[in-house]
Structures are given as C-alpha cells and as structure tokens.
Recover the amino acids of this structure.
C-alpha cells in the first residue's frame, strides 16, 4: 500500500493521461458522430450510404482490432503519428459509430412534422438540422450518449497495451513491481475509474434535469 | 548422448513411479542423483517424503510449468510449434526429469510478466520459469529459487541508430512490455516509456521506426537481433543486473532446495551447458559461469 501512496504522483499522472484520452476522443467523437448521424438521415444518397457503411463496419469491429490497425498497420504504410494521436484516433474512430447511432435514435424521436414544418418555412437541410431537429434530438439522447461516453472512458484502458502509460498501464507497473500489494493497487485504480464514471453520469444527470424543464 | 540416455532412464523411472509405492519414490530420488555429491543425495531422498509437493508431482506423473512464448532463445513458441523452445523450457525439462516426469508429460502454460505471481499463488502452474527476475518484493508473495542465469538490461535499436548506449535514451521513446521492470528502469533514466503487451509487438515498433529503441534483458534482445541481423542490433553495456529465478508457490517451501539441488546437479554434469548452447548460445552469447545460487531459508 505504501508503494502506491509514496508514488501517488505517478498514479495521478496516469489518470491525467486517461482523462486526456477520454476528453480528446470524447469531443472528437461527439463532433464526428453527429456529422455521421446527419449524413445518415440526410438527403444525399451517397453520404447516407457511406455513413451507414462506416457504422456497420466500425461498430462490428472490436476496439482492440482497431487499435492494432492504427498502431501496427499505419506505420507499415509509412504513416507515422505520435502515440497520443494514434490513441485518440483509434478511440474516436470506434466511439463515433456509437455516437452516430445514439444521435440517430434521438433524431427518430423528433416527430416528422418538425422537419416538415422547417422545410415548409424554407429552411435548408443544414438549417433545419441545426435549429430544429438536433437541439430536440440531443435532449432525448442524454442517457444513451452518457452510456457511450462512460464506455469510452473505460475503453481508454485498451491503450495500456499500445505504448500509452495511462491508468491501466500504470497499474500493471505497480502490480509487477509490488507483487505483495496487488489488492490495494487494484482498489486504488478501480476507485479512480469509478470517480471518472461517476463524474460523467453526474454531468449527464444534471443536463437531463435542466433540459427536461425546458421541454 | 549421456543426457538423452539419462532422460530415457528417468522417463522409465517416472512410469514405474506412477504405479508404485513410496519405496520406489525414494529410489527415484537417490538413483537420479547418484553421480553427484552426497549432500544432494540426502536432500533428494528426504524431500520426496510424503506430503511434499515433489512427491505429489512425481506421483501424478505430470507437471505444469509457466514459460514465456515470445522470447526467442529463452522461451518461444511459434504458432505451429507443439512445445515452447528455449533455455527456460530446457530448465523445466531438467527439473521435471528429476521428478521422473518425461518432457511430453509437461504442460507448458504461457505466462506474461504481469501474471506470474497470480498463476503461482492460485496453483495454475507448479513452476514459473519465465525470465523471472528475483526481487525482494516478489519473494514476499512467491518463492524464487536460483538464480540459474544472470543477465542485464540492454538496448535493441535499428542498425545505424544514434542511440549507442543508455546515456543516449533521454527523451527518446523506448518500448518494452507493459508493467515490466525494464520499462521502469528506462523511465528513471529519462526515456519515454512505451509499454506493449508482448516483446514481439515492441520489436515490430522498433523495426518500423515507431519507437527509437527496445529494452529488456540482453539475452532476449540478442535472440531478436539474431532473427533479423541486417536490420537490428544490440548496443551498449548492460545497465542492470537481472537474476533469473524459478518461481514456486509459497505453500511448498520445500521445493526451493529441490530446485537448487537439481540445477546444481545439471551444472555439474554438463546438462546446463548443453541446454544453454542449444538455446541462448545460438544467438552468440558465451556460455556463462553458473551463477552462485541463493541459499534456501
């Protein structure tokens, strides 16, 4: 137990990288996933099919395989990226497909009349998405999106096997070094993840409450 | 030849053992250590007493040994291989033979750096022989007999790299296996540690230029360099001392003396040298002086 607490700065540093991966990949996945969702419900057939294909392919590929592709495949094709970028790319690539489907479910929850009405008053597809459909859709998808983000926070641990010294990798450093304190080390790091997940669900809960009043 | 013959003899003894009584066990203990000093003889005979783990294993006629599958020369198993090859599996065969267990009755289980203690604690394996450095912290939870081999941490780089020794790794990306001692050591020296799940993944990262260097025990690196000598080389002097030990469960402290004595005997009769030359020796390492083993407490 001493082992962990005497080097607690290393624990914090590791969780900082976990958070960094989560925040960067989270923001990018929300943005890219929303674009994908818009493409999937949009009027352009090519975009619709492309987005549909993306979701089908990526959502059914295990995250580990995506990591292997980005970390071992890209360098073979002479594409060299910094490690953090590779981690964020892998996580974003994967999470976007789930964000897309969560948001699409929200769009489906907005009644067709809303989109028809916005078209009737002369809004373009982009405008009707931005001002009418998506704001309502996003409110409906807070709980499923929170689940997607919680999954993302935990999925950052896959990066442990790919050169990124985030929380799970640091935990393995400690357990390998201090074989006699495994239980305490494990609990310390488990608590770290629980704190992160609880923060996400608290944030989602407060958004849900605030937006419910507005509806 | 002598090695093979004595193994055949031991296999036969093992067969006899599995169907016979305690008396036969006593014989097995003494007959297999006849050529060595008297001290070993005594220990072997007494350690095969009822209730010892060695007796249980000898009676069962089979043993499970944890080894690495991704370290050429030390412990390596290709996708199509039936059994792992390397210096560690050879040690395992020597130990099993002293229990009267032939090589084909050994179950090889892959261990990675991070799961060696849990495997021993839960009894998933009887022994761990997996480039397993002896440390005080590990000895708090598992038994480690040996060392049977002493090596040191070095660096593997692409040919022509500007890293010539450990002094050049500051700020460079250096990979090893996630959670290994080697990675901590280079982190302490200012390198950016990059942990991967296996040594071969780390090696690939060096080969394709994603990281600047790979670090772990010199013996392992030489094994990799030997597979790709045009592209990879080992640089610098060893900058740590790793003493490979054989892990056993703390529940069976009596195994320590048996392991130590068996290795000692293998060193004395030349089996150790032969095992080394057939495995690590092939990557250009000189057969070492057998290290002095720690006393069992």
């Amino acid at each position: 137990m001493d082992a962990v607490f005497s080097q607690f700065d290393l624990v914090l540093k590791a969780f900082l990288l976990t958070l960094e991966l989560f925040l960067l990949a989270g923001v990018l996945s929300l943005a890219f996933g929303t674009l994908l969702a818009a493409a999937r419900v949009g009027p352009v057939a090519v975009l619709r099919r492309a987005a549909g294909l993306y979701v089908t392919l990526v959502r059914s590929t295990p995250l580990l395989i995506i990591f292997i592709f980005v970390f071992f495949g890209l360098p073979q094709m002479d594409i060299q990226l910094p490690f953090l970028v590779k981690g964020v790319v892998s996580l974003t690539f994967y999470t976007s497909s789930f964000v897309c489907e969560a948001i699409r479910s929200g769009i489906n929850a907005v009644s067709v009349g809303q989109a028809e009405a916005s078209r009737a008053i002369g809004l373009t597809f982009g405008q009707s998405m931005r001002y009418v459909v998506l704001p309502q859709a996003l409110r409906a998808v807070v709980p499923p999106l929170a689940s997607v983000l919680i999954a993302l926070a935990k999925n950052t641990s896959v990066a442990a096997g790919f050169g990124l010294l985030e929380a799970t990798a640091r935990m393995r450093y400690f357990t390998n070094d201090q074989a006699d304190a495994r239980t305490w080390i494990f609990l310390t790091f488990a608590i770290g993840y629980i704190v992160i997940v609880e923060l996400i669900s608290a944030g989602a809960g407060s958004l849900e409450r605030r937006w419910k009043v507005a509806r | 030849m002598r090695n093979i013959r004595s193994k055949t003899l031991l296999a036969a003894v093992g067969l006899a053992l599995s169907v016979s009584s305690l008396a036969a066990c006593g014989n097995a203990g003494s007959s297999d250590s006849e050529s060595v000093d008297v001290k070993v003889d005594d220990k072997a005979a007494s350690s095969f007493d009822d209730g010892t783990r060695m007796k249980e294993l000898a009676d069962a006629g089979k043993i499970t040994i944890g080894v690495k599958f991704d370290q050429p020369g030390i412990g390596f198993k290709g996708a199509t291989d039936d059994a792992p090859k390397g210096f560690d599996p050879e040690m395992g065969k020597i130990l099993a033979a002293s229990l009267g267990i032939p090589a084909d009755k050994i179950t090889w289980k892959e261990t990675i750096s991070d799961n060696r203690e849990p495997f021993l604690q839960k009894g998933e394996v009887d022994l761990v022989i997996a480039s397993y450095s002896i440390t005080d912290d590990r000895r708090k939870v598992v038994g480690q007999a040996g060392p049977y081999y002493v090596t040191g941490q070095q660096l593997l780089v692409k040919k022509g790299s500007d890293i010539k020794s450990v002094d050049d790794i500051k700020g460079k990306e250096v990979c090893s296996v996630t959670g290994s001692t080697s990675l901590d050591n280079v982190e302490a020296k200012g390198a950016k540690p990059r942990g991967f799940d296996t040594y071969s993944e780390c090696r690939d990262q060096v080969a394709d230029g994603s990281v600047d260097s790979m670090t772990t025990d010199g013996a392992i690196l030489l094994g990799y360099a030997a597979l790709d000598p045009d592209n990879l080389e080992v640089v610098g002097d060893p900058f740590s001392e790793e003493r490979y030990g054989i892990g056993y469960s703390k529940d069976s402290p009596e195994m320590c003396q048996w392991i130590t004595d068996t290795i000692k005997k293998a060193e004395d009769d030349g089996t150790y040298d032969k095992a080394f030359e057939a495995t690590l020796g092939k990557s250009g390492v000189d057969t070492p002086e057998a290290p002095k083993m720690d006393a069992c407490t």
Notes: The CA atoms of residues 188 and 217 of chain B lie 16 Å apart.
